[in-house]
Amino acid sequence: MSDSSDTVTAALCIIGNEILSGRVQDANLAFLGQGLNEVGVQLREVRVVPDIEDEIVAAVNALRARYTYVFTTGGIGPTHDDITPESVAKAFGRRAVHHPVAYARLEEWYRNNDREFTEARKRMTLMPEGAELVDNAVSIAPGFRVENVFVMAGVPQIMRAMFEAAKPLLRGGKTVRSRTIGTRVVEGVLAGPLGEIQKRFPHSDIGSYPYYGAPGGNGVNLVVRSTDPADLDAAGDAIVAMIRDLGGDVLDDVRG
Amino acid sequence: MSDSSDTVTAALCIIGNEILSGRVQDANLAFLGQGLNEVGVQLREVRVVPDIEDEIVAAVNALRARYTYVFTTGGIGPTHDDITPESVAKAFGRRAVHHPVAYARLEEWYRNNDREFTEARKRMTLMPEGAELVDNAVSIAPGFRVENVFVMAGVPQIMRAMFEAAKPLLRGGKTVRSRTIGTRVVEGVLAGPLGEIQKRFPHSDIGSYPYYGAPGGNGVNLVVRSTDPADLDAAGDAIVAMIRDLGGDVLDDVRG
What we know:
2 copies of one chain form a homodimer. Chain A is an alpha/beta fold and 256 residues long. The first copy, chain A, is built from 9 helices and 12 strands. Chain A has helices spanning 17-20, 29-38, 53-66, 84-91, 100-112, 119-123, 156-166, 187-200, 229-245, and strands at residues 9-15, 42-49, 69-73, 96-98, 126-128, 132-134, 143-146, 149-152, 177-183, 205-211, 219-226, 250-255. Chain A has a 6-stranded mixed β-sheet, sandwiched between helices. In chain A, strands 10-11-9-12 form a 4-stranded antiparallel β-sheet, covered by helices on one side. A two-stranded antiparallel ribbon of chain A has the order 4-5. In chain A, strand 6 (132-134) and strand 7 form a beta hairpin. In chain A, helix 8 runs antiparallel to helix 9 (229-245). The longest helix of chain A is centred in the last third of the chain and has 17 residues, at 229-245. Chain A starts with 8 loop residues before the first strand and ends with a strand. The interface between A and B is large, with 69 and 69 residues. Strand 2 of chain A pairs antiparallel with strand 2 of chain B, so a sheet runs across the interface.
């Protein structure tokens, strides 16, 4: 699938020791990949880095230079291990300051709820100077945007609410559509003709994903993805014809 | 947690458009993070890259220069989108050749099973020249190792079997132990004293992970991780004392 001026790309930087240690299974990558595609943005790279300032700075700077948008998840909050805002500020060469609107909002909220606006809670309003708030319907503490970098929470419920708020700020390109065709013809048999179909349809990406141990037996999902609906249709039809030529059945044919 | 000569590190490079599109949820990262730690290797970085040769080459070369070990998942198989072996060969400046042992084994297996040893199936024996096989109990097609890079399947059942075969080849350092202490004291209240405890125990990493919407209500897991058992114990005890000082209850205290 070749890039064009309509191609809008993104990267995700997942920040957190708990993901690397395997204690927590990331739940944001797949959500973001799908959600971005719905607005015409293609997720092209993901990095998972530990809670170490230099690592976060290096990853954010590498990714923001290369992709239209960068999203970070994790490391915003009141505790000592929440160092994402200061790290992103450093990546941009900006000071980390208390965002005046966020500060006033949290100050009022804690006062109204009879809780102390502790130094730790004030930390949740620290952002790179000039950052724009990314509000959300779930948490009083906002995410933020600096240039093409969106900083979001790691907790999935909050991350999803922040992404909803970020969506209207994104300039989308063409949406990638998909067609998923299932069969029991094995990869070793279909690989040759499938490769020929890929060559005939360079504007579509064709992926082959075998699965094992399913209740109905083993099988393969052949997934065509393209921003060009006509190319997608034609490539999918060629795959259906290929499966029948090989004496197989088409188990599913699902467009997404 | 400071590094020492006993610190053995690893990175994971997940190769696959289906992970970036969100069609498939990765199931290998958390497994590998935990599995590596059991043999004294710390997973420090993960990158997810698309099925594009230049991207794979760049990621593998960046990671293998920096970490003791690199593991890749995905992109080994018979279809046109399985380009990991050739890409890893290119990263090492080696030719991709049919591994003679793997070739002979697959040739025999397909003959014994009355199936054709197709060109596509022969592709599964393509590896960088000089690669060492990483066998597995699940699939006839092996993974392989080149220097400090282990190339594994993306299908979780096969990846896990290959990792079991790779384990004896790893030189482990100190194992990171953990202690997870649960409480309902909120982060905004505990963050100050918790930060002080982190300063007192620089040989332990303390993470704070809030959760929301659980049946029993919201809460926070405080996770201490260290290669030093005495430091881990003392830091954990300090956290338990802190929770009680703040008038809270310790919900869990689990060592791992």
